[in-house]
Each structure stands twice: as C-alpha cells, then as structure tokens.
Amino acid sequence: MLKEERQRYIVNRLHQEGKILGTDLVVQLKVSEDTIRRDLNELAEAGILQRVHGGALPRARSSSYEERQHEENSTKITIARTAASLIHDGQVIIMDSGTTVHEIANQIPLNRQATVITNSIPVAATLALHPNIEVQVLGGKLKKDAQAMIGVPVIEALKQIRADLCFLGICSLHPEIGISMPDMEEVYTKRTMIEQAAEVVAVTEAAKLGTAAPYIVAPLNALTYLVTDTSTDEGMLAPYRQLGIQVIRAES
Predict the structure, then answer these.
(1) Could you tell me the CA-to-CA distances from 94 to 22, 65, 101, 123 in Å, in that order?
(2) Which Pfam families does the annotation name (predicted)?
(3) Are residues 85 and 25 in the same domain?
(4) Do residues 143 and 245 both lie within one domain?
(5) pLDDT of residue 67
C-alpha cells in the first residue's frame, strides 16, 4: 500500500472512530511500527491530527479570527443566546476571547445589569454599547490573530478578581485530554480565568468536541457547564456528563 493510501486510511478511521491506536494500525495495514509512527507524525505536522501517547486524536479545524467572525452560523448564535441566559443581575463575569464568546456579548439582554471583565477587544467594543453592563478591559500585549490581550499584566489583574462566572473560549475539548489549545501564549490566561471564577462555562459547537491540541489548559472537571448544539450526539456527550459537567444543548 502506498503512503498516500495508508494516510488516507488513517484519516478516515480517525473520523469514524474519534481516536486511533498505533498498535491497531500496524495490524490493520500490515506495516511496521516505525512506518505508522512516520505516517502519524507527518499527518500531525500537516495539522490533520493531534499525536498523543500510543496514537492520535482529531484536531479542531484552525482558521483566523476574521474568517470565523464572518462565517454565517446560526448555530453559534443559538449557543450564545443560551449561554447568555446563564447571566444574572449583579454578577461579575469574566469573558474570554473567541467569536462564540463575542456572540454571547451580543446576546446579553439590554435590561441585564452586570460587570464584565474581558481581555477581548471585540467583546469590550460590543459591550460598550450595552446600557447596563459595566466593562473592565484587561491590558497587556495584543495577540492580533485572537483580538485579545495576553501576558503577565492580564494574568496579574485576573488574580485580583473573584468572578461569579467565566465564559471560556474553546478550541478543543476531549474527555481524556481536557481543555487544550494550539497556542501556548493563551493557555496561561485561560487557566487563570478558570481559577478565578466560581463557575466556568465552555461554549462550543459539536465539531470541537472530542478533539485535542498540543497545549493543555485544564482538565475537563474544571468546567461547570458545557453549552453546545443539538446536533451533538448524546453518546459523545455522555463522558462529559459523567464528569459532573452540566451539559446544555442549545435549541433555536
């Protein structure tokens, strides 16, 4: 079997099963462990999968903030509207960066009164027009591709906060790996946001569930809520429920 055929087989199995083991591929493809290791490494370098001990997991699709912002996505709006309903008057809320979290800012009812602390430039700009939300913007180095402030000043400011709720921007969630990111720079900021909030809300579409990225933010039990869409298979959600996470399937 040619290398291209082997790698196509590996990718197809990964999509079908959600994870693959190197030992299984050796038997199925009748090749050496070294051959499978090279194939998995090449696919990981191409950004197609995430290498883990003994095999690989799916990797979430990567795109720029601008591309994600301009995607027509009614599912994202539905998820954001459901997540915004978790906000109560008088709360102190941390809002992370990300297009879904930004959409939550758009969906906060105009009569809701709360304080929002954010490192996201788009979130701050949107809430500047909200009549009853007090906005505190965390200062630091601007990470342009995320439209977010990061770095030591952001982390130190977060450590002075005790928030009721944190809306966390998600790249990848996996029951075994936890919350992970493709960029180390954002990990420390997200980790501190989680630590400083009484409850943590992950908002994500089904495509990011069961995927992994190179850098670990926190284990899944750091989450209080997972808000996702109704297309998500109940079998996929079961491991999250078993960890004590309250799973909310947003309905339009």
Answers:
(1) 41, 20, 10, 11
(2) DeoRC, HTH_DeoR
(3) no
(4) yes
(5) 55
